[in-house]
Structure formats: structure tokens, C-alpha cells
Amino acid sequence: MLPPELSEQACSLVPGEDRLVFSIIWDIDDTGNITGRWIGRSVIRSCCKLSYDDAQDIIDGGFEVDVSGKTGPKLHGQFELKDVVDSLRSLHGITKKMREIRLRNGAFWIEIPKIVFLFDESGNPCDSLLGVRKESSFLVEELMLLANRSVAEVISKAFPGCALLRRHAEPKSMKLKEFEEFCRKRGLELDASSSGKLHLALPKMREKVKTDPVLLQILLARAARAMQLAVYFCTGDLRGREDEWAHYGLSIPLYTHFTSPLRRYPDIVVHRTLAAVVEAEEAYAEKRQSCAASDGIGNRCFTGLYFDEEAAESEEGREALVCAAVRYGVPASEVVSEVAAYCNERKRAGKHVEQSAENVYLCALLKNKEVIFFSFFFHLLFFI
């Protein structure tokens, strides 16, 4: 979406080179709970680049540290490979606990294999396999979800009338009842009264039909069909209806997209809004001398774990937020509504193109096969 001068040279992390970024730093205890948070501008100089396979090897414990430096990723700066390995394994342990907490609190996840096509030298599909997500993917995903959720909390409270968020409505009762009836006819009991109960019911269903993988895939596909699509929205359009801001699949009250500004326009709008909040906080601190930026994590009046509504509603706070919004071009609610509607339409169109392309590739692959083994392929559907 962006020119290479921005997406590759100015923005993407490059080992050994400084990059200007927005950082979110959390204090996380041994049980995976968040105890503190700092959001602000920073400079990152990464020491190395890891592929998902490299990270998975480290997580699995099969990654041997070569003190000679002849194997493994190229390192920059004062860090050693052992530092990278120890940090990643520690991070994996933390994110596993965070994921357990999220699922225990009612988050809903449907894991359906996604078909991956292999191409020959001419660009024609020659084979296929089912993609498998690994722990390294879940590690990154967990931190991205936490970052998106943290930013949603900040911008929705600082700018409650024009924040761009993402919501996921509850499944339509008719589709859910159809799914429950489909399961009941096959001797499967299902409690879908909430996302958490539906999530707890799926493992039991998997256990009961584990000898029939085709039926399992059909059940998961029908469960996914019962879900509504997540959509972008402007908070000003749902003022007084905050219960409709929630994300059903993640089982959280606030969510947005912040982590991918190089490929999603909504993230750029969110970055502008967050930049305004950070600057307003700094300006307010200078005037009040009560929540100075140097006080550390957890002591920020607008971006910390606890939003100071009294500060935001004060004369100094309102002035700081308005001035920062003008400086960073935070869109008015009408503009945010238009952006949300347009991005939702483009998201649906993009998904349709993706599915149509997969159907074309699958037909071309089957056409060239002398012997066809029938199987079921479904898309990985997760509404975030």
C-alpha cells in the first residue's frame, strides 16, 4: 500500500539500524497479568532478524547456541545469541499464560486448516498442503492482540466521539439455533449462550468426533458460518450504546487495529489518534506538573492502565487534547464513519477475491491430477 521508500526503508525494522516507533511496554507478572503500561515514542535498534521457523526451533529447544557465531542469525550490537534464545523462550512462556487467561475469560477461536498451494517454475499450481500454525505464530499474535486492545482503550477514552475501533457482534440467533440443531441431530450437545461457553463446547465436540475428521471439519465450518464479520466503526456513531463496541470473538469490550500501519489504512488513522493522545498527555503534564512523563510505567494520566477522566475533563486536559488533535489531523467523527464504511467494503471485497483465487487454483490443480483424492479444504476463519 505504501511506497518502498516508506515501507521498506523508513518503517520496517532492520537489524542494526535505528527506527522511530511507537512502543507499548507492559509490566507482566509471573501469572500473565498486566500490572503496568507505558505508551510513547521510542527508537528501536533490533539486534537480529528471526523467521517464524527460527523462532519455533528456539521454542522447541532444538536450537543450539553456537558460540563461534558461524550458525544462527547475524547479530548486531552488544547482544549474544544466548540473549536472543533466553529472551524468546521467556517471552513464549509469558504469552502462553496470557493466551490461557484470554481463552479462560471467554475468547472464541475456530482453528480450521487453510490450504496452501505450491507452484512450479511456470507459476502453475502443482501441489497443495494444509497450513499448520505453530507456537511462534501464536506468540506474535498474542502480543499484537494485547497492543491493539491497549491502544483501543486509550483512544476510545481520550476521543470517545471519533475513535476508530473494531467490533464483532454476537452471532445471529437464527444461525446459532441452526447450528445447535445440526449438532443435536448428530448426538452432540452444544451450549452456545456465550462465546466462552461455545469455546468450551468445541473441544468436547472434537473429542466425540475425533474418529470422523470429515464431520469435524464440517462442524467447524458451520460454526464459523454462524459468526458475523468483525467491522470497523466510529465510536461517535454508537455513543450511549457502548455494549455494542465489544468484540465477541475476543470477548473484550474494546479492540482496534494498530499493529500493521504498512498494510492497513485504519491503523494509520489509529496511529494519528494515538500520537495526539501522547502529545496531549505530555502537554497536560507540563502544565500541571502532576504526572510527569519521567515518572515511569503506570503513572500516565491518559495512556497508563488507569485513564484519568478528571484530567481529561479539566480545562487544561480538554485544551491539550483539542490542540493535539488539530496538530496530528485526527479526523472528525463524520470522516471516521466514512473511513470505517469504506474499509469494511474493501475488506469484504478483498476476502471475496482471495476465496475466488483459491477456487481457481484448486480447480487448476485438480484438473492436472490423473488421480484425485477427495478431501475437504476450508479457510481459516478468525474474525479480528
- Please bin the fraction of helical residues: 40-55%
Count of helix runs:
11
Shape, please?
globular
- The percent range for strand residues is 5-15%
Question: What is the strand arrangement across the widest sheet?
Answer: 1-2
What is the CA-CA span between the terminal residues? Answer: 20 Å
- The secondary-structure element order is HEEHHEEHEHHHEHHHH
Largest beta-sheet characterization: 2 strands, antiparallel
Low-confidence stretches: 291-298, 374-384
- Helical/strand content category: mainly alpha
Number of strands: 6
Q: How confident overall, as mean pLDDT?
A: 86
Radius of gyration, in Å, reads 23 Å
Task: Describe the secondary structure blueprint for this structure.
Layout: H1 4-11, E1 19-28, E2 34-44, H2 52-60, H3 81-104, E3 114-119, E4 125-131, H4 135-158, E5 164-167, H5 173-184, H6 195-208, H7 213-225, E6 231-234, H8 265-288, H9 309-313, H10 315-327, H11 333-367
Antiparallel strand pairs: 1-2, 3-4, 5-6
